[in-house]
Design goal:
Number of helices: 2
Structural class: alpha/beta
Distance between the termini: 17 Å
Strand content: 35-45%
Helix content: 10-25%
Number of strands: 7
Largest sheet: 7 strands, mixed
Number of domains: 1
Order of helices and strands: EHEEEEHEE
Mean pLDDT: 96
Strand order of the largest sheet: 2-3-4-1-5-7-6
Shape: elongated
Length: 109
């Protein structure tokens, strides 16, 4: 199963401080708006989303071409979905927790 591009979405306390830290590591802001409290930082193939005040936990994020198929596979395997994809086509996302409670999102553009 191709899960697409991987990124980590971090729930940060201070977007400016987090941006500065990751810029020190060579990341550059490629998308987002610091005034709106979110940035997508990229360093080579590594991608980190910084989100202030948008969610409580850090999220492992995958961008598959078909999140609905990923969700179907997970449901058939007996996993509980916290937020399922809506509709039959177009952008959607599926959210669940792994066995250790880490939030995992499959986000289809």
């Amino acid at each position: 199963m191709d899960l697409g591009i991987f990124s980590v979405s971090l729930a940060v306390k201070d977007i400016g401080a987090s941006r500065k830290f990751y810029e020190t590591l060579g990341f550059k802001a490629e998308h987002g708006d610091e005034a709106q409290k979110w940035l997508i930082m990229i360093n080579g193939d590594a991608k980190i989303g910084l989100f202030e005040g948008m969610f409580e936990d850090n999220i492992l994020t995958f961008h598959p071409l078909d999140a609905r198929t990923v969700e179907k596979t997970l449901r058939e395997a007996g996993y509980s979905i916290d937020k399922g994809a809506e509709g039959d086509e177009g952008p959607c996302h599926t959210v669940l927790k792994d066995p250790d409670g880490n939030v995992v999102m499959f986000d289809q553009f």
